[in-house]
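Worked example

This section walks through a single chain of length 462. The input is the sequence exactly as stored; nothing has been trimmed or padded.
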Amino acid sequence: MATLAKKNRRASRTGLHRDAVEDKTDLVDFKMVTFSLAGKDYGIDIMKIKEIARFVNFTYVPNTPPFVRGVYNLRGEIISIIDLRAMFNLPHEKKKDGEEESGLILRLESNMIGVVVDRIDKVVGIHSSTIQPPHPIFGDINIKYISGVVENDGRLYIILDVERILGKQDDSQKENVKPTSLLDNTVTPAKTKEQTDSSAAPKESGSSKTKSGKDDTKQLNKQFVAESLEAIEGFHLTSLNQEWFDNRFDQWYQERGEADSQVQSQADAVSFLSTFFSPYTGKLWGDDYAAQFEKELPSELGKQIHVWNPGCGKGYESYCLAAVLRKKYPDVQIKIWASDKDLLNISGAPTLVFQENEVPSWCREFMTSGKNGLSFNQKIKDSILFEYHDINNTHSMPPIQVIMARDLFSFIKPEALARIFEEINDRVKGNGVLCLGKNEKPPKESGWFRQEGSQLGFARKG
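Given that input, the structure is written out below as tokens.
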């Protein structure tokens, strides 16, 4: 009995200890931005990070170590850029000139500096008690530059001491101690006037720093969400959708809280984007939408109307567009080029059949009844050419009066989007219209502007 009691007491103490450890891991008092170098996971204290960056076109500085990539103009501030991979002699793939490099802007005690890494991952929150001291086993990087290691979700993160690696020592330290910073003998770029003025300004109070730190954390989470949406769903944050994204992130942040504000899975990405898409996406337009669309179309578009409908999906939008145009312009010849890069969708579009309960009242006059259900009549079908095509490639078409591209452009890479707008400007003639998604606005540099009073995303040439 005594032995059993002793075992129970030991088990009880063990259980309490395990619970205490689990409780600590549930608490978050330390956050780090994580990234990869040569296939290993690293982290930097989030309070040391100003922002995530993508560097392009460094300015070379002569007579500097090979790990100094150059200097970079960050909104008027000139900062040094250090390649951490080269600094620690880690293998890495060299990018071609003009290619973007992933990196971080660090805010150290004495200066601001940029670092290049392989890939930015995410923000990880942990309890500081779970951080273990560095060990010589991590031979890739000198142990004195590592502040600790920690395991999180099955991944081992090496936490770098960026002050020791990149910071500057004060004069009293330099008199007695050999430099420990790898940057002590590198060239520091001259300060700009703005930097000089800011160094003479009074330091922030503790409460201001706390608020600034929270704002920076939120901004970093925002950048991570944007990058995750791009990686998972191919959604690109540009001026086209910036306003919607900012509002949606604020709502998301409020709903989920700081600790759960990141997009880490496809389910998260789909949930975040759930409010982005235009009404009646993937289905026949309702009476209200069709009526508003007809109302916003110009009173005249010419004797022949050519329409481009890229990203048409299964064809619901194309059929609705054809029917509304036929209703608005009954005596005009209409031709719609409807394209998509999904071969299965395009193959099935010409033979779409609808059930009675799927068909809104406004488009019944354009449909015929068959043994399998309702389908659009031959006149509507003949006005649409469904074709396999990727919008990223050029398309041979005559001059266009209407472009229907709801929500599509937000899923196009920015460099490709610029080319597409050039093509649109060449193709669209006269009083032609461009229909974007309800949460999209044409970029200012595109030469297009939101049609005044439009509820559906109509845009006109400036």
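What to look for: The CA atoms of residues 209 and 215 lie 10 Å apart.
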